[in-house]
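Morning. Coffee machine broken again, so started the prediction first thing and wrote up yesterday's gels while waiting. Chain of 116 residues, entered below exactly as on the submission form.
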Amino acid sequence: MLNLSLLQSAHAAMVSTEEVARLAVSSAPDSGHARLAAVLARDNVRSEMERLGIDPASAHERVAALTDEEAASLADQIDKAPAGGIIGAILLVFFVLLVTDILGLTKVFPFTRSVR
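Came back before lunch.
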């Protein structure tokens, strides 16, 4: 009688592969949500958000509301973004000055010949 009272029953249910994969990805330390939370926790990001008038708590709430795919996509975009985009700005200025030199509007580069 004592043995029967100690037995516990177990319940089993079918779990889809998609659900298991979603739980594995969302609980991983390198998931999109975790990477975005790490970015938002940095002091320079927090101070810049406050300077722009964004409440850091609401930013965390918005990140938590993202789906796993959206969070991973946003985290990948942040990882791939250039730091400040300074290279692109320098190249743009160089090409604008080069074209204006060729058109004869300026004379910045000595290696160009004006079409005028």
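The radius of gyration is 28 Å. Going to sketch it on the whiteboard this afternoon.
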